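Ticket closed. Logging final result for DUF2945 domain-containing protein.
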Amino acid sequence: MSEKSFRPGDRVKWEHSQGTSTGKVVRKVTSPTRIQDHKVAASADNPEYIVESGKTGARAAHKPSALRKA
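Final structure:
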């Protein structure tokens, strides 16, 4: 299975409970970290991407499978 790959600055979109959001990739995370009070259980084998919402500026971590190029 090939992993989706994104680079910082890529425009992406993702689904959530209120619909679809768009934003940009800030960075790829390959080690456990925290965003605000949320634990991000990323690893080299299970990376996640920090994305910034274009509407609110809020940052969140998403798995590559949850993101699509916008």
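The chain is about 0% helix and 50% strand. No further action required.
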